[in-house]
Design a protein that fits this description.
With 553 residues, this protein is α/β, with parallel strands linked by helices. It folds into three domains: 103 residues, Arc Repressor Mutant, subunit A, CATH 1.10.10.10; 146 residues, Serine Threonine Protein Phosphatase 5, Tetratricopeptide repeat (Alpha Horseshoe); 205 residues, Rossmann fold, CATH 3.40.50. It has 21 helices and 14 strands. Helix 13 crosses helix 14 and helix 16 crosses helix 17.
Length: 553
């Protein structure tokens, strides 16, 4: 028996003959069970997925009837004949009833998605020729989007389990295309790579990895102008939709193409180390040096250092990942990259986020203050501190209590009084609960707040940045603290000169947060920016970088 979800949901016999499913409800039942294969799916969840358009009079017996029919389909596929589906054999099916739910066990190579993921994993450790062949075989299993017709956001009866599993698998497919492109390019197949990755880039225009490989493939075919045009389109797209500039690696690739210094052999991820016109001095964020620091209670914090010039410590907001920031995907990356020409930047990941290991026994304010103090104490003299978003109250507390550690203070998109800034406790609690229970949906909700009105592709990009920065329980527990902090009594004690920057239409931390800081700090400059986004946008980078660097210097 074979199950197919890489495309439409189907059941087939071992020799490839399709076995008919009795209607859309049975297809949704199978899809929901396959999305949680090997795990208990509650009867309530199955009923909700099957009867999204209104419950039957007796939902329990109706579900049992659907399960009974599906068992017959599975036995038909397993034995190749409907005649074998007799009552005495039904309980031998892979579909088992357990306490208040059902489990579908799918062993071996019976599911196309499992075969795909095994082939892709094997390619990750193979030489380029073998990797390209393995990924060709893996990608050939796809017949359309995962759970085609059942997983779209507006699909009738699309359950969360199916939708989120489809997102995961479709992301894995795109990643496999990118890996195939790099492997095939390393074996001299530039024409094949250009043809196939052009379609991937058109479908996923914000994917840097796919686009950089396409640029190299075009260049190696003698199409330098097309490669540079592809880069220019990407630069404009991410500025408009993500508020970002291309990463340091992409900017180096552009220069390498201009200088005819691109090779078709060797490690596809390594580009010539040449400076970009926009970063003429200093390395890019992708050259960040990572080390581990033991702070107050003995836990280890990942610290990244990069650049040269005026020393600056950047305190993370709610969640972060040095790896994501270094790749250029984080909304803060472009500002940090701009600062490297004149600053020596130190960043760190809070405990349990990014590269800093957990578990996190204390998500509270005092623990966050002690963590930042531990990072600052590594400096030989008072240093400059840049705190963004939810890191602002922590930075204020450190500057007030430890003036020996903070020489100047920059606060971006932050606040002093949590209850006075976030004035809907019911909505705050709902958001924390959503992040904790459904991190996929929670991250998409927050992505829409970070940059309102962007495309679905851009929202998915931001959501993945958040999910790659912290697991659900850590993200929810840190978020819960955000709404409760109030450092207003400490503002007047801060002696370090401060610069506050805030967008008037910020939907993550309202503009009133910046006004609180500016009103309470004794030596403060306030720069109000137009727009609704929470973090720096590409169009503001010149002005913002100049203001921050001049102030810190």
């Amino acid at each position: 028996m074979r199950f197919q979800i890489l495309g439409s949901v189907e059941v087939k016999t071992d020799d490839g003959r399709p076995v008919a499913l009795a209607g859309d409800r049975q297809r949704r039942l199978l899809a929901t069970l396959l999305a949680r294969r090997g795990h208990l799916v509650s009867a309530d969840a199955l009923i909700e997925a099957l009867w999204w358009d209104g419950l039957p009079d007796h939902p329990g017996p109706a579900l049992q009837s659907q399960v009974h029919r599906l068992r017959r389909v599975l036995l038909t596929a397993d034995n190749g004949s409907a005649e074998s589906s007799v009552t005495g054999q039904l309980e031998t099916s892979q579909l088992e009833a357990r306490h208040r739910g059902y489990v579908l066990d799918v062993p071996g190579d019976q599911l196309d998605a499992d075969r795909f993921e095994r082939l892709a994993a094997a390619a990750g450790t193979a030489a380029p020729h073998e990797a390209a062949d393995l990924l060709d075989e893996a990608l050939a299993l796809w017949q359309g989007p995962a759970y085609d017709g059942l997983a779209e956001g507006d699909a009738e009866g699309a359950g969360d389990a199916v939708r989120l599993e489809a997102i995961r698998l479709d992301e894995a497919r795109t990643t496999a295309f990118e890996s195939w492109g790099e492997a095939a390019l390393a074996t001299g197949r530039a024409a094949d790579v250009a043809a196939r990755l052009d379609a991937v880039v058109r479908q996923h225009p914000l994917r840097e990895r796919a686009r950089s490989t396409l640029m190299r493939a075009l260049y190696l075919q003698g199409q330098q102008a097309a490669a540079l045009e592809t880069y220019g389109e990407y630069r404009q797209r991410i500025a408009d939709e993500l508020g970002l500039e291309p990463s340091a690696a992409m900017q180096r690739l552009e220069v390498a193409i201009l200088r005819h210094e691109v090779s078709g052999t060797g490690d596809p991820a390594v580009m010539p180390s040449v400076p970009s016109p926009r970063q003429p001095f200093g390395p890019g964020l992708d050259r960040m040096r990572i080390s581990y620091l033991q702070v107050a209670d003995g836990h280890r914090v990942a610290v990244g250092r990069v650049g040269s010039g005026v020393p600056v410590v950047a305190s993370p907001g709610w969640v972060s990942s040095l790896a994501v920031i270094g790749s250029g995907r984080d909304p803060r990356s472009s500002l940090f990259q701009r600062m490297l020409s004149s600053t020596a930047l130190t960043l760190y990941d809070r405990r349990g986020t990014g590269l800093s290991p957990g578990p996190v026994p204390d998500f509270g304010f005092d623990a966050a203050v002690a963590e930042l103090e531990g990072v600052l104490e590594q400096r030989e003299a008072p240093t400059r501190l840049l705190a963004m978003s939810q890191a602002g109250p922590v930075a204020v507390a450190v500057a007030a209590r430890r003036p020996d550690l903070v020489r100047r203070l920059v606060l971006w998109g932050s606040y002093a009084d949590g209850p006075g800034t976030f004035r809907r406790p019911d909505l705050n609690a709902s958001l924390v609960a959503l992040v904790r229970a459904h991190w996929g949906l929670g991250s998409r909700t927050l992505a829409d707040l970070y940059q309102p009105g962007v495309s679905a592709e851009a929202a998915q990009h931001f959501a993945m940045v958040l999910r790659d920065s912290a697991p659900a329980d850590v993200a929810a527990s840190y978020l819960e603290q955000v709404f409760e902090l109030d450092v207003t009594p400490l503002l007047a004690s801060v002696r370090a000169p401060a610069l506050v920057l805030h967008c008037r239409g910020d939907r993550v931390i309202p503009f009133v947060g910046g006004q609180q800081l500016a009103a309470g700090l004794t030596d403060c400059s306030f720069l109000a920016l137009e727009g609704r986004c929470h973090l720096p946008q590409a169009g503001d980078l010149d002005r913002v970088t100049e203001a921050i660097v001049d102030f810190l210097a």
